[in-house]
Amino acid sequence: MLEILNDIKTNIVLWFQGLTPQDIAGVLFVLFKIIVIIIGVKVIIKLGAMLITGVFERQTKPPFKMETRKSETLKALFQSVLKYVVYFVAAMMILGEFVNTSSLLATAGIGGLAIGFGAQSLVKDVITGFFILFEDQYSVGDFVTIGEFTGTVEEIGLRITKIRGFKGELNIIPNGQVSSVVNHTRGSALAVVDMPVSYEADISKAIGIMGETAQAYAEGNPDIVEAPQVLGITSIQPSDVTIRLIVRTLPNMQWKTERELRMRIKEAFDKNDLTSPYQHMVVMVKQDG
To answer: What was the pLDDT predicted at 117?
Structure first.
């Protein structure tokens, strides 16, 4: 191993010693052009991202009034396309300093078939990404379930979709694996509140209190889109009776509404002496004689 390293070192030294001033100048000029290309890539991507952001921010204002989620989705997509195009052009320019790119492109068709088999998943991801955007299946900011992942869409690219989970985890899903989507953001949501009541409580009174409490919460609340409804008894358990209340809300506001209504209804039950259910046992003792 040491002998191999010494041979490599010797060859490198001999190569440098054999360079003429013109060769050294040519090498330095090539390195300079590569550095300029790399800097140019960073500048173009940064300026292009700023330009794309400015264009789509104007689209959300009058007279265009594009939806913010749609604007964020298209902005991320165009920025992704910009990066791919700029990186590809820069790579070809750098390769052009070492090989003849025209002959490289001419022979690309020969290896294209072999590469195509390995790039099938990539092509599938890109095509599926276009269909996702064309059919408007979901947008940036939507709360969705894709397969086993549930969260808020942070980015839709040509190849991948990024979803931020409830606990903060970032799930990166190839678009080709998006076979079914549940979009929780489109249309209104349904808040369901099940309140258990003991057998000793006045059921009609409990239903009335639930309806009054929910109606008071809904008045003037911008998150509520339909008046609350008390459906009545939905189940009877050994130690309690369950009463269900439903209310239509704006997308993603159903969980907040459920939590708030449970607290208010529980407080109202306590004020009206409606006892909470609990498990109890009746023991019967038989005495002889």
So the answer is: 52
Angle at 206 between CA 204 and CA 210, to 5 degrees: 120
| Rounded Cα–Cα distance for residues 37 and 93 (Å) | 8
Interval 2-12: pLDDT, tens: 676 666 667 66
Q: Which two tokens stand for residue 198?
A: 């003991």
Q: What distances in angstroms separate CA 160 from CA 137, 140, 253, 279, one per listed residue?
A: 14, 13, 28, 51
Which pLDDT value is given to residue 113? Answer: 47
Q: Tell me the three state secondary structure of residue 169.
A: coil
pTM above 0.70? no
User: Before 62, cis peptide (omega within 30)?
Assistant: no
- Whether the CA torsion 157, 162, 163, 168 is positive or negative: it is negative
Contacts of range 79-84, beta carbons closer than 8 Å, 24 or more positions apart: 79/48, 79/49, 79/52, 80/157, 80/158, 81/158, 82/45, 82/48, 82/49, 82/52, 83/45, 84/158
Query: 171-207 pLDDT, tens per residue?
Result: 999 988 888 899 888 888 899 999 999 888 889 999 9
**Domains of the chain and CATH, by start:** 20-102 (1.10.287.1260), 130-183 (2.30.30.60), 189-271 (3.30.70.100)
CA distance 119 to 112: 10
DSSP category for residue 151: E
Q: Which residues of the chain have pLDDT under 50?
A: 110, 113-114
